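Example 3.2
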Amino acid sequence: MEFSQSDKLAGVCYDVRGPILDAATAMEAAGERILKLNIGNPAPFGFSAPPEILAAVAEQLASAQGYSDSRGLPAARAAVVEYHRGRGVTGIGPDDVYLGNGVSELIMMALQALLNDGDEVLLPAPDYPLWTAVVSLCGGRPVHYLCDESAGWLPDPEHVAARITPRTRALVLINPNNPTGAVYDRATVEALVELARQHNLMIFSDEIYDRILFDDAEHVPTAAIAPDLVCVTFNGLSKAYRLAGFRAGWMVVSGPRGHATSYIEGLGVLANMRLCANVPGQYAVVAALAHNGGAGDLVLPGGRLREQRDIVVKLLNDIPGVSVVPPRGALYAFPRIDPQVYSIHDDERLVLDLLSAEKILLVQGSGFNWPKPDHVRIVTLPSVDELSDAIGRIERFLASYSQR
């Protein structure tokens, strides 16, 4: 008897870690050195967590041997509440907070608790592909609304409105955005919230990069301007606090919980089924949120993240036929490769050919549900020297590349 994968996986993909990474892994096994610009993992590029957070977790290890409450340690949930209250979110308490093994687990829980087969969820294009994959895996239908590159990758509320149907249950915001680095201004967030208000939609707001902001960018928490709507906000320690391996994330349910009693009961069932999030990571939440720095000086002029963002933008825009909107947040650039200059009709093949020729691993734009084969995503975590060398090699590769 042949065992085949579940039909539920049909159409589910996560190309940040997918077949192209498998090819890169095989090349590494054969002795090649691959520069991996495919995933926002700070540690391999020399970014360390604040030492006081690591010390605080080490002190608590003896207390972290048993299960916690399924929603998380009371102290960690209280710290999350204070963090979000400080950012203008009202009417929340520790019982509204769920700690998870990273935001990824919590996205799965949040959508499993809501979706019936055929329910629709509005997602940005481009998006972080886990959102699209999980909607599909939960039996829902992902419906993408286009973000406008010419407007700094902001969503177009009119296009969002045109995608709403009687089956639409929820609206997803990814702000700051992965992969584009867009940071939504207040007017954009307010317009999206108003659409959710008019159509009685739940809001899911992915804010994992809210502490990684450049220039004059200001992050507007969705829940702070939607106190009358059920809003689930996601955040964690992987990026701003450089603790990706601790898998320490949280979600906060805000708004009129009386409208979502059954949904919240479902979250409780799912939280209980997985017993709890890893407890040492929960102690890291307590320590990190007491440490107000986040990304701190790294994003300021002269800071490493800022300098790396700047060099990526400059060098990409210097390549004929390549352009990139300067990211205002997060850890990525999403350059456009002009199809009038380069003959490219398959962006996955482009990324594979670049990997083979130059030993550089990117992710194709279609992996983020962008509908055209004219973008790639580049992680901006390597040093300025590494990035300069990598983009020089990309320029050399493109100069003679064609898919005719």
